[in-house]
Amino acid sequence: MSSKLDQVYDVFLDLLESGTPDEAIKKMEILSVGQELLQQVRDRHERETIKIKEREEPRSVVLGNRFTWYTGPRPKDKSWPAIKGLLEKDGWSDSSIENLDAASTKVVSMLSHPKEKAFSTRGLVVGYVQSGKTTNFTAVMAKAADRGYKLFIVLAGIHNGLRRQTQLRLEQQLVRPNPSGWMQLTDPDKDFYPPANAAAYFATANKQHVLCVIKKNRTVLEKFDQWLASAKDHLRDSPALIIDDEADQATVATGTINPLICRILKRLPKSAYVGYTATPFANLLIDPSVPEDLYPKDFIVNLPQPEGHFGTEVLFGRDALDGEDPEDVFDGHDMIRDVPDDEVHLVRPVSKTEVDGFTPTISGTLRQAILYFWLTTAARRVRGTGKAHCTMLIHTSVNTSVHNSFGPPLQWLREKCLRAVEAGDRDLLDEFREIWEKETGKVDARQFGERALEFSELEPMLAEAIRSCRIVMDNSSSKDRLDYESGPVTAIAVGGNTLSRGLTLEGLAVSYFVRAVSAYDTLLQMGRWFGYRNGYADLPRIWMTDELRDWFRHLATVENEMRRDIDVYMVEDKTPLQFAVRLRTHPKLRVTAAAKMKDAVKAEFAYGGQRIQTRYFKTDPKWLLNNQQAARRLIADSIADGAPRDPSVPDGRFLFRDVSHERVLEFLANYEFHKRSQECDAELITAYIEKRVAAASALRRWNVAIVGNPLDRPHTRPFEFAPGVRVGQNTRARLPGSITDGTVDIKTLMSRRDAAIDLRTTVSKSDLSEGEIEELRHAQLPSTGLLVLYAIDKDSTPHKTNRAPLGLEEDAVGVGLVFPKPRGQDNAIKWTYVSADLSKVDIEEEDLTGLDEEER
Predict the structure, then answer these.
(1) Is the Cβ–Cβ distance between 285 and 124 less than 8 Å?
(2) C-alpha neighbours within 13 Å on the C-beta side of residue 161
(3) pLDDT, tens digit, for every residue of 663-684?
(4) Is the link from the previous residue into 650 a cis peptide, with omega within 30 of 0?
(5) Which stretches of 43-127 are assigned E, i.e. beta strand?
(6) How far is the C-alpha of 150 from the C-alpha of 210, rounded, in Å?
(7) How far apart are alpha carbons 646 and 656 in whole angstroms?
(8) By the 8 A CB rule, do 553 and 317 touch?
(9) What are 799-812's pLDDT values in tens digits?
(10) Kind and range of the H or E element at 336?
(11) Which of 15, 131, 463, 687 sits between 20 and 30 A of 560, alpha carbons compared?
(12) What's the confidence (pLDDT) of residue 787?
């Protein structure tokens, strides 16, 4: 019976080529296949689609009743097997190909069946910067072509460089393996130009797929729209897949490109629009209630971070999220180098009036970065592994005249260094040696599986590394562009926007970045250093200001939290129209361009079950002394109120139980949290406590603890909170980088042990997990909050090599707050997140609403 079912199921899959699953079943009924067997076929197909839909990776959020049909490649397919073969030749591992196969299958399964009478699918695929999104959508296009999609439109950014790069990739992986199956409307050197007789491309007799890779450019899109209009009568049988690469750029909230994409989509009776981006902030803030918009109503797919990918978190670390212990969160590799603020004016005009005639000074950290780049080039040639291309990026300004001004001084430095190395100049060689030994001492090559190299091995290769290095100005006004197609490239590339979106800088090892940017998505897309570094994973370095380093660390936190939101909503079986991803804000950065945030609303947040803590401190002595005074007043008033001291806590710690919430609110009014500690917003915490007290009589009573060290510990300075309440101060060092704008960042204040100080347990509190602490608090103190004070020594010195002395003028007082998780619904408050406004969405009717392009 099993072999009979297999045979019938294969027939069913064949029939799926020419119709939907229901139509295939009807055809089989005509062929007199028995009802019992047909039901087994239905059940088997449903199991296969559910298995794909519920696959753990990639995670996805799907419109609840969305019908899926695709169950994966078939033996007779042409396009996907060709891509798979090319990747195998390129050395892709079996597991990497399997992951690509699974992820692309999931995306294709969410597209509409090409034989449906009409459809308008809207989806979004969220990847990582430089993580292989192009490979993923190429695989999606291949599988869609194998199943019968006809027209493939790729919107490849706004610059020629990315459009050309994308066209070449698609030609290599889609067209060349099956040249008789494709017609191209564009080529690497020419964007779309209308060919004659558009109808011939879509005639039923023409079985070829049509490929078009175009820029998001008004003139180009207008020509393409008019060309499609001339083939209007033939488009109803031409299912189209539109891939919007860099979907957050130019697509959302623009006055010209946006309506043109809208018009093109409306011309296509069968269209599946899938946006691809690593920075979906603008896409997730589109108003979902507007039918003409591009909110991803049908699905959102969250691609996992591939193995070996250098992402934001890997390089910059991130903050702890809800339920995480900061000590368990990776701090990032030691690959970021500081550009002092007093050097920025040497490489970037201070104002627009200084642009004309600006000449950069190649000294200080920029000189170090360039010399280190030549060292990495020599090192990679000694190793002989990975790609042969070697690139350095200098990005200081968007202005093309500033880019061009780097040419002469960089050429002069290269020629001077080349002559000196060829002449055996000991001073310069010693400078090279010092830089190499300093950098290799900070990052161990062996942890990346690479061989550590001595400078003596590099020295013979240095002259050739410098000699082969080109200086390339890559911008919209230059003719000399980065070209990796004609053999190995070693280049220092100076540029701006043409190098900041989608374009892959092959073999990028060194980046010098001091560009002033004001939005998350713009900043993140400029991080061309993200990606894969096979064969030289220990060598990449990034020079930037300490403020930029802090911004990228914040972005790593935002990214991680955004993706976790998507994952959570998938587990909760929510649809794209029932949830809004929260995007944490920053005091100095916009989430995206102001026009794209028009429909954003403040997101709600509840502190229930959360543990928050201060990690940023000002160096201002008045600020520090004020917070000392607020902490002392809280302890003195609590004692005066008769709050009992718990004698069970160990020496160096104090615990006062049953403190009134009024005392806690007074403390929150007096203590000043740093503005960067966004979750520690005194107004929001106060509002939350007041809501809980009013709604459920919870948080009326608090336990207040002091965490310090025994006074008899060597080299411990005392701090007195009140008469008889003295502790040895804590030591907390700051993260690397100089102190900027009077702020230090200690990353971690509170341990799990501290968060359990008021709980009774028979095991060591240090061994409790976050979940166990939450359960114990829920059982023992379900309505009681915990506030913990820390006295921190201003002269703290680091125990870890990647930390720096605290460097404060007065001792600091840190604060940790632990909120019990309520038994019922929590009282939410408007927090410093933004999300899409879902209040106007009619979920039941949305199934029938086709989304087109947004018109502003």
Answers:
(1) no
(2) 22
(3) 999 999 999 999 877 678 888 8
(4) no
(5) 59-62, 119-126
(6) 6
(7) 6
(8) yes
(9) 766 677 888 999 99
(10) strand 336-338
(11) 687
(12) 97
In 674-683, which positions are buried (b, 16+ CB within 10 angstroms) versus exposed (e)?
Answer: bebbbbbbee
Q: Residue type at 765? A: K
At residue 122, φ and ψ (nearest 5 deg) are: -130, 120
Q: Which of 546, 507, 558 is nearest to 528 (CA)?
A: 507
Contacts of 227-233 spanning 24+ positions with Cβ under 8 A: 227/192, 227/194, 227/195, 227/198, 228/198, 228/264, 228/267, 228/268, 229/267, 230/198, 230/199, 231/198, 231/199, 231/201, 231/202, 232/267, 233/199
**Does 322 score more than 50 pLDDT?**
yes
Burial 172-208 (b: 16+ CB within 10 A, else e): ebbbebbeebbbbbbeeeebbeeeeebeebbeeeeee
- 240: number of Cβ within 10 Å: 25
* Distance, first Cα to last Cα, the chain: 60
CA atoms in the 13 A half-sphere facing the CB of 436:
22
Residues in the chain: 856
CA 528/CA 522 separation, integer angstroms:
12
Measured between alpha carbons, how far is 649 from 758 in angstroms, rounded to an integer? 8
Of the candidates 439, 395, 470, the one whose C-alpha atom is nearest the C-alpha of residue 539 is 439
Neighbour tally for 427: CB within 10 Å? 7
**Which residue's entry shows tokens 């038994």?**
823
Please provide the DSSP assignment of 513-558 as one string: E-----BHHHHHHT-TT-EE-TT-TT--EEEE-HHHHHHHHHHHHH
Element (H, E) at 430: helix 426-442
